[in-house]
Design a protein that fits this description.
Layout: E1 4-5, H1 8-30, E2 35-41, H2 45-61, E3 64-70, H3 76-87, E4 94-97, H4 107-113, H5 125-132, H6 141-152, E5 161-165, H7 172-180, E6 189-193, H8 200-204, E7 209-212, E8 230-233, E9 237-241, E10 247-250, H9 255-258, E11 264-265, H10 273-291
Parallel strand pairs: 1-11, 2-3, 2-4, 5-6, 5-7, 7-8, 8-11
Antiparallel strand pairs: 9-10
Helix pairs in contact: 1-10, 2-10, 6-7, 6-10
């Protein structure tokens, strides 16, 4: 069996084309321009890359974009004051504070300070609670992207045995909540595994859909999956550098061996990654429509 490659870049491109049309229509018919602001504290290189990519995508789609680059020593009070100002700015529909924050800042307090209506990352407790009861305003971006990859690949989700490896607030818990809802693109039976799961292989071998966000390079091996499984690999791990200094990346799944048993699988890179920013843009457009009373 040769697995179908679920290419996030291709799915993301399709969704972005639709978003671009929707944004142009919002501007032409309603004079509404979605606005997204990114806030970066410090000079973490990976964070700078992510923020730059979000800014570039916003501009390509026609979303109004602002960016705040704050010094590492920014205080909690200063950061909260900026968020309060952005909460009140009618041009801004989405506020994204890039994580991780410097250690002297209280991440929870910062995220909770964002107006839930502008929390396009979906991390505010209000939005987490709405997701839990099946009435989300915004779904967290990476989990939402995973669901879209499954839908676009033609994977049967309803009634499927889904096993999620990893219980983070960013991926594991929300994707489990999304897929167990009584809703289109969901209705699955979901099991969450984690570091204290006694027999990981017992669970992973039962999966029709296996979603892995464990943070361990090549953790899931071929003997841990059944024939015909659909694998979504969320992990991105640097395992070395080329002679030219380019990063060598792998996922949390041993791609080369697991692809021989899988029906479909995401590559790393090029799988889940491209979907995250696309879902952020989708949430920002939704926020703009809600603010304008168009939904």
């Amino acid at each position: 069996m040769t697995a179908q490659l679920i290419k996030g870049a291709e799915v993301a491109r399709e969704i972005r084309e639709e978003l671009k049309k929707e944004i142009a229509e919002l501007k032409a018919k309603h004079n509404v321009v979605p606005g997204l602001v990114t806030v970066l504290v410090g000079a973490d290189p990976a964070s700078q890359v992510y923020v730059g990519a979000k800014e570039k995508t916003s501009q390509e789609l026609g979303i109004y974009s602002e960016r705040y680059d704050l010094p590492e020593k920014t205080s909690q009070k200063e950061l909260i004051a900026l968020i309060d100002k952005l909460n009140k700015d009618p041009k801004i529909n989405g506020i994204l504070v890039q994580l991780p924050l410097p250690k002297h800042l209280n991440e929870g307090e910062v995220l909770y300070a964002i107006d839930p209506k502008k929390d396009v990352d979906g991390f505010h407790p209000v939005n987490v609670g709405k997701l839990m009861i099946g009435q989300p305003d915004y779904m967290p971006c990476t989990p939402a992207g995973i669901q879209q990859l499954l839908i676009h690949s033609g994977t049967q989700i309803e009634g499927a045995e889904v096993v999620v490896v990893g219980r983070s607030n960013i991926v594991g818990k929300p994707i489990a909540n999304i897929l167990l809802q009584k809703a289109p693109g969901a209705n699955a039976t979901v099991t969450i595994c984690h570091t204290r799961t006694r027999d990981m292989t017992f669970h992973t071998r039962r999966a029709d859909i296996l979603i892995v966000a464990a943070g361990k390079p090549k953790y899931i091996t071929a003997d841990m999956v059944k024939e015909g499984v659909v694998v979504i690999d969320v992990g991105v791990n640097e395992i070395g550098r080329t002679a030219e200094g380019k990063r060598i990346l792998c996922g949390d799944v041993d791609f080369e061996t697991v692809k021989e048993k899988a029906k479909a699988i995401t590559p790393v890179p090029g799988g889940v990654g491209p979907m995250t920013i696309t879902m952020l843009m989708m949430n920002t457009v939704r926020a703009a429509k809600v603010a304008a009373g168009l939904t």
